[in-house]
Specification:
By secondary structure, the chain is an alpha/beta fold. Helices cover 35% and strands 17% of the residues. It has a single domain, classed as Zn peptidases (Aminopeptidase, 3-Layer(aba) Sandwich), CATH 3.40.630.10. A six-stranded mixed β-sheet has the order 1-2-4-3-5-8, with helices on both faces. Helix 6 runs parallel beside helix 8.
């Protein structure tokens, strides 16, 4: 995941036109005490295991052995939990023109339900540690424990819990995007100004939905959600596209006692998978993404130190609980 900038003119115009759009609807919503919403118990140890399992494969860079092995693990595990698993294979050009293969993995639960929710994360890890403090590492791949594996680990635990909740009437689709984190490194000569070299898997999925006319009433994207010093503020693209959803997620966090983590403050726009879900698939989707106060995202972003030592079980539990409440409260 990418730079903190406003993206392209079309998206900027949506953001401007959308600001304040949902305020009245928020004000008129009936009050819900989200602390009272019944959900399965999120198991932080289980989520941590899923994060560590991904990291143990090694850097999940395009077409590497670790990438292949991790894909097989994700697909095999989700097939034991979901009603249906779709593997969407595609190819795309990187910033330098090189063609690489990608795999988006989609797990669907309660497939007959027309009322659906979308949870997403990316499962690849970056090919270049271009923000490492050691210049010798700038061409080395990263493990991506927080930037990638943390969100996937939470969603695999949610998949386990939804599988144990047969009474659920609402449909859920978990989408694991590939080729999210392979945008041009800072040392590259060719830097696409529109940042379309990032988030290749979500660009493909959003224009080639896994089933025709797929719809979800809202989506939540997770990115860098396992760091020990967890901090989220309201990312501006999310506020532009899906203000009422973001406000609702923050209200859930407040009721659960996590308002010191989900800060009621706005954060500059980020290029991430939610941009393309909103722009092409037209599914109102927000981004829950680490926003450290004094650095870009978190201290080990795009460095070789983004390993399992970055991951805190309590952080995984906080985000997992918020997502579970949002899902079960929406039924």
């Amino acid at each position: 995941m990418k730079k903190n900038i406003l993206i392209i003119a079309v998206i900027c115009s949506v953001l401007i036109l959308s600001c304040g759009k949902n305020k009245k609807a928020d004000d008129n919503d009936a009050y819900v005490n989200y602390k009272e919403v019944k959900t399965p118990d999120f198991n932080a140890d289980s989520a941590y295991y899923f994060v560590k399992t991904q990291c143990d494969f090694g850097p999940r860079t395009p077409q590497s052995k670790a990438w292949e092995n991790c894909a097989e693990f994700l697909i095999s595990y989700l097939k034991t939990k979901a009603d249906t698993v779709y593997v969407q294979e595609f190819s795309s050009a990187l910033w330098d023109g090189k063609q690489v293969k990608g795999r988006n993995i989609i797990a669907s639960f309660n497939i007959e339900a027309t009322d659906r929710v979308l949870f997403a994360s990316h499962w690849d890890s970056r090919m270049w540690a271009d923000h490492d403090e050691n210049p010798d590492n700038h061409h080395s791949p990263i493990i991506g424990a927080n930037d990638g594996a943390s969100g996937v680990g939470i969603l695999l635990e949610i998949a386990r819990l939804i599988n144990l909740s047969p009474q659920t009437k609402q449909g859920l689709d978990i989408v694991l995007f590939d080729l999210e984190d392979q945008g041009a490194p800072y040392w590259a000569e060719n830097q696409p100004e529109d940042q379309t070299d990032w988030c290749l898997g979500s660009q493909y999925w959003s224009q080639n939905l896994h089933i025709p006319y797929y719809r979800a009433k809202y989506g939540v994207l997770l990115d860098m959600v396992g760091y020990k010093d967890l901090r989220f503020s309201k990312e501006m693209q999310s506020m532009g596209y899906a203000q009422s959803i973001m406000n609702n997620i923050w209200n859930i966090a407040r009721d659960l006692g996590f308002d010191s983590i989900f800060i009621d403050d706005r954060y500059s726009s980020v290029m991430d998978d939610h941009v393309w879900i909103n722009h092409y698939a037209k599914i109102p989707t927000i981004d829950i993404v680490q926003n450290s106060a004094d650095v870009s995202f978190f201290p080990y972003w795009h460095t070789t130190k983004d390993n399992i030592d970055c991951i805190d079980k309590n952080s995984l539990a906080v985000v997992g609980k918020v997502l579970l409440v949002s899902f079960f409260a929406a039924e």
